Amino acid sequence: MRSDISYYSQLTLFLKEAKTDNLKTRHYDSDYLGTEVKVSFGQGNTARVPWISFLKEPNKTSKGIYPVYLYYKEKDILILAYGVSETSDPPFKWKDGDSQTIREYFEKRYDEKPSRYGTSHIFEVYDVDRLPSKEKIDQDLNEIIDE
């Protein structure tokens, strides 16, 4: 795993822009560590859960599994997850199916269901107001991409 490559500045920009009505994403890098990066703040309207996905062929955001950052704006939490497509059942499964799902986390922590992406599994949850160090953020992302 390379330690000189960082996604931290892109992530902090994403979190800042997610709090605006701007839906533009062209200024984000389109690749990171051999993955295709997709960023979404919503289509037409701002999303309640903006996201950044890291895709390797043949996975697509609409059909596949992939590392994903999910920003739950209402809770001000960022979840790095083992993403599972909501649009179509993915042809693959993550090896580690033992981690807590986002649905389980929300039910336990907030006594409610998440608005979206409940079947994805949690790698890490971050409080947006108290993000860990750049090194920890990059280490976590690089680790899940390696998986």
Q: How do the helices and strands follow one another from N- to C-terminus?
A: HEEEEEHEH
Using only C-alpha atoms, the radius of gyration works out to 14 Å
Q: Tell me the fraction of residues in β-strands, as a range.
A: 15-25%
The major beta sheet can be summarized as: 6 strands, antiparallel
Mean pLDDT: 92
Number of helices: 3
- Give the low-pLDDT segments: none
Please give the structural blueprint.
Blueprint: H1 8-17, E1 31-32, E2 35-40, E3 51-55, E4 65-72, E5 77-84, H2 102-110, E6 121-127, H3 134-146
Antiparallel strand pairs: 1-2, 2-3, 3-4, 4-5, 5-6
Short synopsis of the structure:
The chain is of the alpha+beta class and 147 residues long. 22% of the residues lie in helices and 24% in strands.
Report on this structure:
By secondary structure, this protein is α+β, with helices and mostly antiparallel strands. It has one domain (8-146): 2-Layer Sandwich (Metal Transport, Frataxin, Chain A). It has three helices and six strands, in the order αβββββαβα. The chain has helices at 8-17, 102-110, 134-146; strands at 31-32, 35-40, 51-55, 65-72, 77-84, 121-127. Strands 1-2-3-4-5-6 form a six-stranded antiparallel β-sheet, covered by helices on one side. The termini are close together. 27% of the residues are buried. The mean pLDDT is 92.
